[in-house]
Amino acid sequence: MKARFLPIVVSVLSAVVAACSSSGAPDTGTFGESPASVITTAAGSYRIAVHSAPDAQPSRGVNSLRLIVTKVEDGSPATGLEVTVVPWMPAMGHGASVKPTVQVEAEPGVYTVNNVNLFMPGLWEIRATIGGSASDHATAQFEVR
Question: Is this structure's pTM higher than 0.85?
Answer without folding.
Answer: no
